[in-house]
Amino acid sequence: MFSRLFSRFKRPFLSLSEQEILALAISSEEDDGRIYLAYADALREKYPHSARVFEDMAEEESHHRQALIDLHVARFGNRIPLIRREHVRDFPERKPDWLIAEMPIEKARDEAEAMEEAAHRFYVEAAARTRDAATRKLLGDLAIAEKSHESLARRLGEKHTPEDVRAEEEQTSRRQFILTYVQPGLAGLMDGSVSTLAPIFAAAFATQDTWQTFLVGLSASVGAGISMGFTEAAHDDGKLSGRGSPIKRGLASGIMTALGGLGHALPYLIPHFWTATVTAGAIVFFELWAIAFIQNRYMETPFLRAAFQVVLGGSLVLAAGVLIGNA
């Protein structure tokens, strides 16, 4: 809604003069070059080969920018109007630098190719709007260049990131995903699913009241989620361990902890005690299976071993809750 409101204050592309089109092209090439350098800076530590890809792409944008500036100077002089893509209606926007730092490497490559495709469309439209032969030729040449650059990240990747290097970078990316999201989320799911079994089933068998049991489960799940989330975020800033953003890890841990407990608390919204309890027990089975699957899929723990550990631990906690509730 807000983007539509603000777009009313932007200029239509068709209203731009030839000088303004050149100025917009110059500023766009500057922005794209900066973005590619930001990609390179963000990737250099973990993905040095891919960082070189984006440095080469930034250099290409610099050559385009210089050609556009030379043409502007020849036709209109040294004073370039200040017009940027955010001033023009429906012009493709670019993500700011601070959103790039945590971008996965494959997402960065996809964004780069999308940027080149958008630049190609711009130059095609710009060339159609100009009457000067030299300007039309340059814009047309740039349109062809940008079209060929749609796969520039891929072509440069073949130069700087051969298959063995790409496989290594993909492995590094997968490892980072596991450290930032999977490990904290798995720890939260295990804590939420297992540690809340005892209080929820103890309350269920002690009170035989489904609503009271639900309130106990809700409070235990939410409380555990908040505790686990803050603990994960506070105990490691990720700089030395390389585990990534503490906020992302805290959210992954906290949300999965709360979901793990709520899974077998929500059935107690069912008024009938035994129906709710049997449903909660079935959900516990699927929760424990999900934990074993994640351990096997991402942590490379043998499935039978993971299942045995999770089922044994869950069974002990569940039995403790039932015994305490019947005491």
Which structural traits does this protein have?
327 residues, mainly alpha, 76% helix, 12 helices
Protein topology:
Elements lengths: L1 H6 L10 H26 L4 H29 L28 H24 L4 H17 L2 H9 L2 H33 L1 H11 L2 H26 L10 H18 L9 H26 L4 H23 L2
Description:
This protein has two domains: 9-161, Ferritin, core subunit, four-helix bundle (Ferritin), CATH 1.20.1260.10; 173-325, no CATH class. It is elongated, with a radius of gyration of 28 Å. The protein contains twelve helices and no strands. Residues 1-7 have low confidence and may be disordered. The protein is mostly helical and 327 residues long.
CATH architecture label name of the largest domain: Up-down Bundle
Into which percent range does the helicity of residues fall? over 70%
What gyration radius follows from the Cα positions, in whole Å? 28 Å
What's the number of helices?
Answer: 12
**Would you state the CATH class of the largest domain?**
Mainly Alpha
* Separation of the first and last Cα atoms: 59 Å
Q: Beta-sheet strand percentage?
A: under 5%
**In CATH, what is the homologous superfamily of the largest domain?**
Ferritin, core subunit, four-helix bundle
Largest sheet: none
Q: What is the 3D form?
A: elongated
What are the segments in which pLDDT stays under 50 over at least 5 consecutive residues?
A: 1-7
Q: What fold name stands as the CATH topology of the largest domain?
A: Ferritin
Total number of beta strands: 0
Give the averaged pLDDT, no decimals. Answer: 77
List the secondary-structure elements in sequence, H or E: HHHHHHHHHHHH
